[in-house]
Amino acid sequence: MSLLRLDSVSRRFGGLTAVDAVSFDVPAKGVTAIIGPNGAGKTTLFNVISGFIAPSAGRVMFAGQHITGLPPEAIAKRGLVRTFQLAQLFESLTVLENVKVGRHLHTTGGLLAALMPFRASHSEAVVGETSRALLRHVGLASQADTLAGVLPYGQKRLLEIARALAVEPKLLLLDEPAAGLNRDETTRLASLLCQIAGSGVAVLLIEHDMSLVMTVADRIAVLDFGKLIAQGTPSDVQQNPDVIAAYLGTAVAAHA
Amino acid sequence: MNSRASIWVETRHNPALLVLWLLAAALIAYVFVTGGYLIAVLHFAAIYVIFVTGLNIFMGYAGQVSFGHNAFAAISGYTSAVLTANHGWEPLPAAALGLSGALACALIVGYPTLRLRGHYLAMATLAIGLIVYEVAVQWGSVTQGYMGISGIPPLGIGQWTVTSDRALLVLLILSAALAVLAAAGIRRSRLGRAFVAIAGSEDAARALGIDVAHYKLIAFLISAFYAGVAGSLFVHAVGFVSPEVYGLHMVVLAFTMLYVGGIGTVAGSALGALVIALLPETIRTLSDYQDLAYGAVLIVILIYAPGGLASLSQFWSPKRRTEGA
Fold first, then answer.
1. Segments making up each domain of chain A, as ranges
2. What is the least distance, in Å, from the CA of B36 to any CA of chain A?
3. Which of A89, A114, A150 lies at the smallest CB-CB distance from B191?
4. Does any CB of chain B come closer than 8 Å to the CB of residue A120?
5. Model pLDDT, residue B219
6. A97 touches B: beta carbon within 8 Å
7. By C-alpha distance, which of B112, B120, B103, B109 is closest to B65?
8. Chain A CA closest to residue B206
9. Alpha-carbon span A85 to B45, nearest angstrom
10. Does A83 touch chain B (CB under 8 A)?
11. With contact defined as beta carbons under 8 Å apart, do A3 and A62 qualify?
12. Which residue among A66, A157, B56, B236 has its CA within the 20 to 30 Å range from the CA of B197?
């Protein structure tokens, strides 16, 4: 039973077909990676899945339900949460508050609660505890009261993941989580991804760092010029001639 | 607890802010004792504290832009004025009706425009500000045009009315304090975090399940409510209203207060309102050069404290400099 199913999803921008009839399944467990050369349509595909842009054709099913064309907030509510290629933190909030925002869907309270703080203090305490636990999980507990805007880049990426986990997603979409990280940070990211997958959250990631992908991914899908050209286990994909051609050029070009 | 915590958190690392709060308290106490013309200035300041604190919820917390909150002050203020002065209503029900009118107008303007990104809302608010001003000028049979409405009774319930300047000062300071505490409570709550999240990144907020259009509208309505309260308090405090009271000048003044105080911070918008309301009085002795000095002071503040007065702590603790940005 697949958690996410893409059924010939296409997205055209004028004459350019950024995503071209892509169909694939993401199972409810493990790490799935989408790889492909720059401009292959990976981020566009992410934007379609997470509701930031509507597909030109095709269907997106999540947990057995149609989510094609739903707005991002409705898709998040169903348990599909994404991060961004450039970490998009709430920079004027503290690290802890950022994660608390991630608890939005699991808490209640509007204006009335804001104006009657005594009644809300219990639920605030619970949110605070949950959020601190998540910060400990990604190793940012000591930074809880720092403003998110002043974190070093590597920690920003970790905070974005912690914030996404606060939503308790069924499926976590990570757009190049290792971009800009040093080797050390990438290693820690890899073990964090394995922990997340181990806790039962399915992970779908776009990534250029092949050693990370080969370490953590259970399955890989390869996009090239908007088309899905291969999918399978890391070793399958590594030996697939189409994939080698997409990355290194065709045999003719390679010999020339 | 929450609201006090919020002001305390801002103040704790910020000796400048603490000094400003103490100065403000000392000034209010001094004026209360000595009385005189400065009481009227503080009335004005307290009303603007409410207006600017509300505007800060929309512009500072939620990161949107409105050039038209004077419209909501005008709708509520004129409703209060017309009903109490011309139709013998009690101030409270008149203000309640005025506030409902302001909120209804905010809903009508905000609902369609807040779904759009970019500057549509700013343009729509600018338009509503100008429209309400024109209505106040042209609808002579009700608003008496440029002449304005005078003889507006003081605030009160039944026989208890606030007639003395000192009693009015206490009432207005209490209202302003309540407004600031409520804004601080909002900032520390789930609601306020959603506002600030939207200002930080709409995309990220949506990806976490926040209905951005919905929360922008709530922020807009809350700030329109504050504007309405300020508008109604004004007419009863002064006893007179004309279109100029809620003209574009009000918007310029409120923006100045917001940026001088420090947009986004609870204390900044309140202190900014106090400082800017008092500034013309403190430099009045310069007579001919008054406007020049006023402008110069504003420029100095914005050059040396671009984050506003609330960011002055930078001078004490360089470590936090980047955080103020």
1. 2-255
2. 36
3. A114
4. yes
5. 96
6. yes
7. B120
8. A73
9. 46
10. yes
11. yes
12. A66
Domain covering A2-255: architecture: 3-Layer(aba) Sandwich (3.40)
ipTM: 0.89
The confidence score (pLDDT) of residue B121 equals 82
Q: Is the dihedral of CA B275, B281, B286, B288 positive or negative?
A: positive
Cβ atoms within 10 Å of B122's Cβ, excluding its own = 15
Nearest chain A residue to B204 by CA: give it. Answer: A88
CB atoms B207 and A84 under 8 Å: yes
Q: Nearest CB to A107: which of B3, B190, B218?
A: B190
The confidence score (pLDDT) of residue B323 equals 40
Measure A167 CA to nearest chain B CA, in Å. 7
B282: distance to nearest CA of chain A, Å? 34
* Beta-carbon contacts of residue B243 (< 8 Å; ≥ 6 apart): B74, B133, B136, B137, B143, B145, B146, B148
Which of these ranges, A43-52, A110-119, B51-60, B80-89, has the smallest mean pLDDT?
A110-119
pLDDT, tens digit, for every residue of A58-93?
999 999 999 998 999 999 999 999 999 888 999 999
Quote the tokens at residue A157.
Answer: 């990426």
Task: Give me the mean pLDDT over the A133-143 stretch.
Answer: 93
Which helix (H) or strand (E) segment is B149 a member of? strand B149-150
Q: Of the CATH numbers 3.30.420, 2.40.50, 1.10.3470, 3.30.450, which one belongs to the domain with range B2-320?
A: 1.10.3470
Nearest to A90 among B197, B212, B325 (CB): B197
Task: Give the pTM.
Answer: 0.89
Q: Is A118 at the interface with chain B, CB within 8 A?
A: yes
Question: Which of B186, B204, B322 is opposite residue A84, by nearest beta carbon?
Answer: B204
What's the pLDDT score for residue A144? 92
